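Reading group handout, session on sequence-to-structure problems. Before we discuss, look at one worked example. The prompt was deliberately terse, the way you'd type it at a terminal:

> structure Sulfatase N-terminal domain-containing protein

The input record follows.
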Amino acid sequence: MEDKTDFPPTFPISRRRFIERAGLGFAGAAAAGLAVQSAFAQIAGDKPSRPNILLLIADDAGWHDVGYNGSEIRTPNIDKLAGQGVQMEQFYACPTCSPTRASILMGRPPSRYGILEPIAGRSTQVLPTDQGTLASLLRDAGYFTAQVGKWHLGLQPENGPNKYGFTSSYGYLHGQLDQLSHIYKNGDPTWQRDGKFIEEKGHATDLIAQETIRLIRVSDPRRPFFIYSAFSVPHYPLQEEEKWIAPYEKTIQNKSRRLYAAAMTHMDEAIGGILSALEKKRITSNTLVIFISDNGAQQDWVSSEREYGGAYGPYDVLGDNKPFRDWKGSVYEGGVRVPAIFSLPGWLNRRKVGYPAHVMDLLPTFAALAGAAIPQPLKVEGQDISTLLEGKLGGSRTFYWNTGGQLALRQGDWKLVHQGGDPAKGADELYNIAHDPYEKQDLSASETTVLMQLRDNLARQHSLDSLPKPAPGGN
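And the output record:
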């Protein structure tokens, strides 16, 4: 049976068709969702009570960089997870790293906290400390909480994961690092355990996997865990051994793309080891495993002496977001629609879900599964999607993005892309994602009523944002 989603052909949307799409796209979303779910759906089992939660995050993996989406890159363990779980066909992140991670932990658009782009250099920008986070609410509900790998929400040890509800933390504070020496691009230390810099040998992919496996092995069966395991690849710099590169020598001609593929396959094997640890511990049936990417893939990278002394790159070809438009950093689908899998045998059976969802939905979903109360200071805008994962019908959703240079709003089937950081200035583009997921046909000139409604909502959303805090240090 063909597993790929077939979208309807692109065509202009008439005024009558717009009216028929009640709620700015609910009917279209429902039809698309039913079509995708019917591709291979089984009845969901009973919802688990307080399962373990394991969140696996790839760094800059594109839609077409995983095998189950048709990539030439070998990702057998990720593919196996997809084959036995729920594949989300319209799962959204933010265009870049820090914003996505903030949205996961706070359950809201990251622009509400002034986080519009990656926190870089020696910036002191951080999340608020007076509202709680996903980690703290799960900790307070009795979960053991651990962060492994990339943090990127506070670059100083005192602003690391332990400050935000994680009982244990291990990995790196910045947005990238030398995979072997574990230093940041400007030479600053970044590898830490529980707020103290440490030095270790080994590839970051292996160290992140080893720590995740260790935490699983020593976990207390009487206490559920939440492990947030964020890999460092396939973000540059790409430093892979020949054993990972060799399988692609004949199939991928471009050297940069080969390195990228090697990093993906290395990570996939690491994920396989983590999943094996769950099996050996005999907790697979009570562990919700989620795999996502933090944003779309990056197209290329030009090296400079300011980054790692010019030792790596340039990379002229990196990820692949086909068939979607554009790259990491953009609000077009290629920048924000990411691979996403949810797996828990016995509850989530094999299916594809065509309804839209967002990383900000993880907080309310995990909280509901854990029976955890969401603190009132956390003004969560995400939704519990557990019934959506079970195959039930979803409703119309609204998602908002602010990168500082671009704004976007998806409302039902419709998506407004605004060029510029001020909704009152700049050009607008309008797309119907149900019929034009590749954003080829701008309907702003013909669908003026829809455009005005989305523009008004975009302005309202923008008014809720906070200005970025001063971030000294530059990039």
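Points for discussion. First: The CA atoms of residues 243 and 346 lie 36 Å apart. Second: Residues 1-36, 470-475 have pLDDT under 50 and may be disordered.
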